[in-house]
Amino acid sequence: MTEPAPSTGSGQALDQAVDEAARLIFAANYVVALVGAGLSVESDIPPFRGPGGLWTKYGEPDMRGYDRFLDDPKQWWEERISRTGSYQELVDALAQAKPNAGHLALKEMEDLGYLKHIITQNIDNLHQEAGSRAITEIHGNRTKLRCLGCGRRWPLDQFAIDELPPTCPDCGGIVKSDTVMFGEPIPRDALDECLLQTEMCDCMLLVGTSAVVYPAAGFPVDVKRNGGRLIEVNPNETPLTDMSDIVLRAPAGRSLPIVMSRLREMAGAR
Ligand SMILES: [Zn+2]
After folding, report:
1. Which of 197, 203, 208, 232 could form a disulfide with 28 if both were Cys (CB 3.0 to 4.6 A apart)?
2. Average pLDDT for residues 229-255, to the nearest whole number?
């Protein structure tokens, strides 16, 4: 007997891994997707690090971002309104980005009852645009504002900014972008929801994430500890690969639609 070949992005190995992934999802009770920047990159949103990355081109951002905001929220808002460079490039890319086949496959997986929740590290709103409903955004959403006092959120276009910094009509707290800044704690409601979802999860899809940043890094570890299974969907090897039960070594936009079609076949044959 020889060891089975590791799953790779080419041909037969990917086919086999896709079949195994579909069977695992089909049999699981509570599937959660943990999504990272790789899925956004497939929608042409530039990454922060690596070749073509915003930080590679424009330099690392201020790691004290949140402290600077708290020191002088008015100045932060004035800068934001007039900002250029990496910020503007990201804003332009986000404005033009559309959900890709990976986002749409996750949406259909939810519609058919296989996927219960998406935990995303992305801020681009593309899961909502794809039509997904059960979503927790660890790092916030670029299309929203959030009150630092009571945690209430508003869509950007439904909040009239008539003073800087804007303040909350409910509690008078300072309002900032919902996007989580460097040094800013993950919003409590989002973190609590992630922990709840992870606790219920018996099969986690790791889509385009290397999950090296906490708290996201802890979720797959918790799922494994509770006896759950991990399916990595990533064109690149990550620190999660060794921990994963199945590896789809391909972009999500290529592999997840095939997983979805297998799931439809299995549902039809039931
Ligand atoms: Zn408030």
Report:
1. 203
2. 96
Q: Return the closest-CA partner of residue 146 out of 94, 188, 117, 118.
A: 188
165 CA distance to ligand 1 middle (Å): 13
For residue 135, the CA-to-ligand 1 centroid distance in Å is 22
Distance 78 CA to ligand 1 centre (A): 21
CATH number at residue 257: 3.40.50.1220
Task: Report CA(169)–ligand 1 centroid distance (Å).
Answer: 7
The confidence band for 241, taking pLDDT boundaries of 50, 70 and 90, is: very high
Residue ranges making up the domain that contains 17: 1-45+99-139+185-270
Identify whether 74 is part of a domain.
Answer: no
Distance of CA 82 from the midpoint of ligand 1 (Å)? 25
Convert the pLDDT of each residue in 185-199 to its tens digit: 999 999 999 999 999
Distance CA 98, CA 79 (A): 27
With a cut of 70, say whether residue 8 has pLDDT above it.
Answer: no
- 103 a catalytic residue: no
* Structural domains of the chain, count: 1
Banded pLDDT at 57 (limits 50, 70, 90): confident
By C-alpha distance, which of 259, 258, 254, 204 is closest to 232? 204
- pLDDT value of position 85: 62
